[in-house]
Specification:
The complex is a heterodimer of chains A (376) and B (90). Chain A is an all-alpha fold and 376 residues long. Chain A is built from 14 helices and two strands. Helices cover 62% and strands 3% of the residues of chain A. In chain A, β1 and β2 form a beta hairpin. In chain A, α1 packs antiparallel against α9, α3 packs across α5 and α6 runs antiparallel to α7. The longest helix of chain A is centred in the first third of the chain and has 29 residues. Chain A is globular and about 70 Å long. Chain B is mainly beta and 90 residues long. A five-stranded mixed β-sheet of chain B has the order 2-1-7-3-5, covered by helices on one side. Chain B has a two-stranded antiparallel sheet with strand order 4-6. In chain B, β1 and β2 form a beta hairpin. Chain B starts with 7 loop residues before the first strand and ends with a strand. Classes of the chains: A mainly alpha (376), B mainly beta (90). Chains A and B meet through α1 and α9 of A and loops of B.
Amino acid sequence: MKYTTFNPKRTNPLVEPMFFGNPVNVARYDQQKHPIFEKLIEKQISFFWRPEEVDVSKDRVDFQSLSESEKHIFISNLKYQTLLDSVQGRSPNIAFLPILSLPELETWTETWSFFETIHSRSYTHILRNLFADPSPIFDDIVANEHIKKRAGDISKYYDDLIFLTQLWQTQGEGVHTIDGVAYTVTMRELKKKLFLCMNSVNALEAIRFYVSFACTFAFAERELMEGNSKIIRLIARDENLHLTSTQHILNLWIKGKDDPEMAEIAEELKDEAKAIFMLAVDQEKEWASYLFEQGSMIGLNKDILCQYVEYIANHRMSAIGMGQPFDISTNPLPWMNNYLNSDNVQVAPQESEISSYLVGQIDSEVNADDFGDFDL
Amino acid sequence: MSEPQKQYVITLSDHISIQHDPKDTVLESLEKQNIDIHYHCREGFCGACRSKLLEGEVDYTTDPLAFIDDDEFLPCCTKPVGDIKIKIEQ
């Protein structure tokens, strides 16, 4: 089916499936088939922030005082995060927008991608502050074997879906030979690619960021690189919201609350979807080994980080009906909670200097029992 | 100053019972008793504190955005409306 930017056919978006129904025509938000996406848009917009609001100038001094192994950890994580957000800043738009059928989900996708571009801009903000010329850092992202290996697995599912969608939109269903390779295009096949892609995106948002988040916050626990930590907190808050959206999409399919064929496909590809998640877990553990190959940092080592990946994976996998495959029930990095708490996220420059800003605030709530030991 | 509200009991699956203070969320009540529980946003959008509600009912203090299954709830943005029994992740 040829894509059209404005479908002139009168459609009822309240009965369309999320994907592969009629293309969206009127961008209207007064009614939604799945109100959750409208709420996510509102929430995400309320989180708007700009990297320049966070003062990272003190980080330059901190960075000079880090050991070589700590510099390696810090810079490698920034490279990997830059890669992840480079992919996420464009891919949901390119892969999902052409096949979406609900206005609220279309706008959510655009809002989501836009925030990923803010994240990309903040890595440039951080790196420009640390280095007179950040080019060697950016250049290494496409040269570093450890990063490239994971980039392939992240972009593969997007690329498969995008390519098959292009064939379907230009040639329709059937068998099409491109450069000597025969591709079978059916609606079932397209939906399968979509399901696997969404699982891959969900795994990305669920765990791929968390090894680097943990390292960033471990520096902040030592009052180092606090400007960077402030930015990563804002990014983590956004990523939490993105994860919520992919969990909702997957569960709407799995529970048969959207397209009934997607419920069948979810059952059929259950093992493959789980394998995508497990591969992401393994790759994050490998990344932890690479980070610490030149030595560890105070407060964090490879083993604790791997345990944290398993702990987070258990939680994220159970949210989409994949059970809890890892034998770990307590959080090995409990201080992470404080950094991921949205109450502690502040952007005002004067506040970024003070990591304990909230501690001294006044509790204005007065209850009767506060006067309990008060005599006249 | 509002009327003192009724105190309810929160029972955990491992048979620990605590009193709920009406001005607290379930999460705050657990923390006051030094019971470790996983949380991130504390606003109902991330789902990190997602727990099982085994018995009883809760009221949401804010509209939860995180995905929660039929038998689950978010301790960070709920108050009990009667005695409840829950299973949490630490």
